[in-house]
Amino acid sequence: MDKEFVIAIVGGTGSMGTALALRLAAPGVRVIIGSREREKAKSVVDSLKDKISGGRLEGDTNQDAVKDAEFVVIAVPYEGHAKIIADLKGQLAGKTLIDAVVPLQKGRPFVPPAGSALLEAQTILAGEAPVIGAMHNISALDLQDTKAPLGDVLVCGDGAEAKDKVMEIIRRIGATPYDAGPAGNAYVVEGITGVLIALNRKYKSKHASVKITGIDQH
Question: What is the CATH number of the domain that holds 56?
Answer without folding.
Answer: 3.40.50.720
